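Data card: per-record layout.
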Amino acid sequence: MTIILILGVFAGLYMLWLVFSLAIYALPFWAGVTTAFFMHNHGQGLIASILGGFAVAILMLAGGQVLFSTVRSPLARLGLTLLYTVPAGIAGYHAVYGIGAMAIGAGAIVTILSWIGAFVVAAAA
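The structure for this 125-residue chain is written out next.
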């Protein structure tokens, strides 16, 4: 029983690390998945849809990095930063809400903790 508790703690810490390290990829992931579903729903094959989704996700990630390194305007950089951190915050909100709802049940405290988690994840992204 003790080993299960220890492994549970390590699994929880690993999930927390994944949330923070993968938060910046929320927008490219969302764009890729949306493109793949759009292509598949409009008659494209499964392989073509998956490849199209990967292509869009890679272009979003690379395009954001290139734009951030070349744009010098602080206002444009702020807009680009918000474009990538807002989806990361939304992903952080839902991750904390899902874990909190499993641990203590849905309620006001879980919602408050989820908002705090959203701001922390967005700030970390």
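Known properties of this structure: DSSP finds five helices and no strands in the chain. The two ends are 36 Å apart (CA to CA).

See the next section for split statistics.
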